[in-house]
Write a sequence for this structure.
């Protein structure tokens, strides 16, 4: 998705803006641009299609300097990736960068054209530049002009705006798209993600929806809207960003994704840290109101997108089996537009790595608005402290995965699963489940990071197998029970980074249709942990073999499955059935990664995809 960086400092801010853009590259984008106030009344601008490196080349041929500027990486929504459509957009003395979508841009555009404004792009953003320019003539001052302009906007936006006649300030606005303010002794900065600004500060103000901010090199003043709809200065807490900046480097690894796959033993240990007692989960460690909230929960609506949705699907098996609490899992973009029936005692549990996914946030808000009396509350499982989802939920459980830069989610997923297992066990404790199984699972969870480390030893074996896999055009993934969502996740990983078409099915569903696809050119990846469904899964594998399908099976050493003609078996370290979904995720991540490397795709920034999907 698009990324914003803006700065006002006491020195040339171009290096800060460019470093910020590079740090936002992971979000996915197709063009980049920058605008600076070069002297009072003079705006300089450079925009380029493609990577930030291309913009850098443009700037080294024609450098820009200034104490104030805005910069942007654009992920096209309205209008193709082109120089004209790249941000910043300029109108008179105003330059604007924007994340989000202006839904009423067509009506505004007609109005502005009638007023004599000339449009040079196909974007929705350009209306904002012209609106601010028009309001500046009325109000004579940037903050008031931006305030008046945003009152006309419908949709979602984060904005950074500069005025060539006021080189001492940047104005920002937030409504539905994330925007943070970074504060240091040298200046003040805006970013769509704190990661963009970690080289200049670790102190951030997280803006709330409806906020405007005026940033000068001495600091910032935030203007919020009070209950009566009046805009006035508000105090927003300044928070220190917790993560070590080293965590955003690639280290010894060729790609972020591989680094993040190998970080999983530590990430999962961090997700467990301080939350396990000797034979039970420490519910108080989830937050002061956790015991009351989970104790009153009678059912759960679990809502998420993409990989996070798959984590929710696994959790349904755990929560129903371990706590006996009914659990419904739904894709956020569907939940938000449905007339959801939430019986009394419903907990809305949202899952998100970023905490800024537009559909998941909208589902949370939709639920709160529609049937507040029936929801006992909202719980977010999230990786980004201070994100919108965390701030707007009653309770949040941080996954502590650390920054995840690769677009394909890996450690965020396994730490979500770990956190969900803690929630399932907490519910079990509060809803009277027998203590022996709880104690056994707590013991196994302590051992989980080691088990994941052992599983990663399969890296070399899977890399070798990937060579034979890379020429296939389609793949089918099979699993049963809680491994079925893991099959879905394996298929998603393969398709998003290698561009091989992949589908996943519950193995028992094979004969109801997908079996028709099976022949020698269709590899089938199956997950075979030692659980009560292993014999049924073996029968499903026979159905594939009998039709000449090529099997790659990730199997428990005790499963009895052995290598044979048409069937490659990779032995995964033995583990208990409840934790097997977490363990079996790792070989599928490694398979997708190595196949993508053989195919030469852009592993960390796959085509057309964005890390944080902040538009609908
Ligand atoms: C995962 O590999 C994907 N990149 C994507 O499906 C992602 O999980 C989804 O967009 C949800 O993101 P979130 O967890 O930040 O809400």
């Amino acid at each position: 998705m698009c990324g914003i960086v803006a700065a006002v400092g006491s020195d040339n801010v171009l290096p800060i803006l460019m470093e910020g853009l590079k740090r936002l590259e992971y979000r996915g984008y197709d063009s980049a641009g920058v605008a600076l106030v070069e002297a009072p009344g003079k705006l300089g601008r450079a925009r380029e299609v493609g990577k930030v490196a291309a913009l850098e080349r443009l700037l080294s041929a024609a450098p820009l300097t200034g104490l104030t500027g805005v910069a942007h990486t654009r992920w096209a929504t309205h209008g193709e990736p082109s120089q004209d459509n790249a941000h910043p957009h300029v109108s008179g003395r105003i330059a604007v960068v924007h994340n989000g979508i202006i839904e009423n841009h067509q009506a505004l555009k007609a109005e502005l054209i009638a007023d004599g404004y000339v449009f040079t792009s196909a974007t929705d953003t350009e209306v904002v530049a012209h609106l601010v320019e028009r309001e500046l003539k009325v109000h004579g001052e940037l903050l008031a002009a931006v305030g008046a302009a945003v009152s006309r906007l419908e949709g979602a936006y984060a904005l950074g705006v500069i005025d060539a006649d006021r080189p001492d300030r940047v104005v920002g606005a937030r409504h539905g798209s994330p925007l943070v303010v970074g504060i240091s002794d040298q200046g003040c900065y805006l970013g769509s993600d704190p990661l963009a600004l970690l080289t200049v500060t670790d102190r951030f103000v997280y803006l709330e929806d409806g906020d405007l901010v005026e940033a000068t090199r001495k600091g910032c003043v935030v203007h919020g809207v009070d209950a009566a709809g009046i805009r006035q200065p508000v105090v927003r807490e300044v928070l220190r960003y917790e993560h070590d900046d080293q965590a955003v480097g690639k280290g010894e690894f060729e790609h972020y994704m591989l680094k993040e796959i190998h970080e999983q033993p530590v990430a999962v240990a961090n997700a467990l840290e301080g939350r396990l007692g000797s034979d039970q989960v420490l519910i108080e460690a989830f937050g002061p109101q956790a015991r009351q909230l989970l104790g009153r929960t009678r059912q759960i609506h679990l809502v998420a997108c993409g990989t996070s949705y798959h984590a929710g699907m696994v959790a349904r098996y755990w929560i129903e089996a371990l706590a006996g609490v009914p659990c419904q899992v739904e894709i956020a973009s569907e939940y938000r537009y449905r007339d959801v029936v939430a019986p009394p005692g419903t907990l809305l549990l949202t899952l998100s790595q970023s905490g800024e996914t537009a559909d998941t946030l909208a589902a949370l808000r939709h639920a709160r608005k529609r049937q507040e009396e029936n929801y006992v509350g909202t719980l977010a499982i999230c990786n980004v402290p201070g994100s919108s989802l965390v701030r707007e939920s009653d309770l949040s459980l941080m996954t502590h995965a650390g920054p995840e830069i690769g677009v394909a989610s890996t450690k965020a997923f396994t730490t979500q699963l770990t956190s969900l297992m803690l929630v399932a066990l907490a519910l079990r404790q509060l809803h009277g489940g027998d203590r022996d199984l709880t104690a056994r699972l707590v013991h196994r969870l302590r051992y989980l990071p080691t088990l994941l480390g052992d599983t990663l030893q399969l890296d070399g074996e899977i890399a070798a197998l990937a060579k034979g896999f890379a020429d296939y055009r389609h793949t089918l993934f099979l699993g049963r029970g809680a491994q079925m969502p893991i099959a879905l996740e394996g298929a998603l990983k393969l398709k998003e980074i290698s561009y091989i078409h992949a589908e996943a099915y519950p193995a028992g569903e094979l004969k109801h249709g997908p079996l028709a696809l099976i022949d020698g050119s269709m590899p089938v990846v199956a997950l075979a942990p030692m659980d009560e469904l292993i014999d049924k899964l073996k029968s499903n594998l026979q159905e594939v073999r009998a039709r000449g399908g090529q099997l790659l099976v990730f199997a428990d050493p005790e499963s009895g499955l052995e290598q044979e003609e048409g069937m490659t078996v990779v032995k995964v370290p033995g583990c208990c059935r409840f934790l097997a979904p977490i363990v079996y995720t790792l070989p599928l991540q490694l398979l997708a990664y190595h196949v993508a490397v053989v195919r030469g795709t852009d592993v960390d920034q796959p085509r057309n995809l964005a890390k944080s999907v902040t538009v609908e």
Q: What stands out?
A: Residues 457-603 form a domain with the Rossmann fold fold (CATH 3.40.50.10490). The longest helix spans residues 435-455.
